[in-house]
Amino acid sequence: MEPLVDRLVGFRRDIHANPELSFREFRTTGRIVAALEEAGLSPQRFEGVGVFVDVGRGPIALGLRADIDALPVLEETGLPYASTNEGVCHACGHDIHTTVMLGVALLLKNMDDAGQLHGRIRVIFQPAEETLPSGALFVISQGALEGIPRILALHCEPRIDAGKIGTRIGAITSASDTIKIELTGRGGHTSRPHLTEDMVFALAQIAVNVPAVLNRRIDVRSAVSVVWGQIHAGSAPNAIPASGYMAGTMRCLDAAAWHGAGELLDEVVRQVAAPYGVDVKLEHIRGVPPVVNTAEETELIEDAARAEIGSSAIVLTPQSMGGEDFAWMTQRVPGAMMRLGTRTPGGDTYDLHRGDYIPDERAIAVGVRVMARAALDAIAASGARDGEPVEA
Fold it and tell me: Is 74 helix (H, G, I), strand (E, B) or coil?
């Protein structure tokens, strides 16, 4: 494993230094394809960006998925391999996800060459997880899930130490929508708000009251959360602007409540804005449902982790309020996502989507070992001959 891990760390640092936004991952796709072809594999590109590869022969026993895009975030790590693409960085750890799944493909190919792989695994390198419409839907539409009976993924977790993983049965992420609201009306002087539609005041009422109303009209156990990330209006302190804009997200722990909350949110926004006479243009972009981990696929991950890194390295992870488009895949085939610990033991705790996020690269080897073992166990469980153990 050590020579492979050293190579993977170099690969990860290369794509980390050259991050690409959603549906623009041309270089990243090329680097993945080159590494797979160098190993003697035959990767299949999706239209534009992204790729999948089958390792082994026979019916597919398991699918593995990695997301490959970066975020429009300025990197602030100061690392020697920091982003060279200004304003873009791998602040969510997708470079780690990509590297782990590349490592699994290469390790399984080595086993196949040695006559030790007795089934077939499909590894999907998916573009555009960080945008809507979803990259998962894009690759599904191109047949990426055809023939796959079950699927696994992983996600970096900076609150879990490197060397450990987090799992849970049931929903592990939340539903997530994007909300964009544009208000228009007559501008005017701040001394005469009664002669205008007071745009800033209307924006403030929507920002405060829409979440409050939803919390009174939806079961609190569904944990519906509306949080605004943008509010823009005006250019002078004594002028009421003629337009304003705000945007944010709605997140929900429960898939059924997500559908109901989505319809209710549109109604509530218009009701809250109505008394102020503004015109409302609402764009409600339905995002992703929760990722729901099935019991059997979660057990597949946990059994693999016990064999490779020990029972004490498995922790129960809470359901995240973040969204993940892997949910579209788990709605079609049974699947599970694990949390891959990336915090240096005793070191700083970062958060995802921050420009200073520095994952511990020792997590790469952990991810490869656990996912490769899960692949071998899936082959054995599919009725093929038992796979060989993964070397430590």
Answer: coil
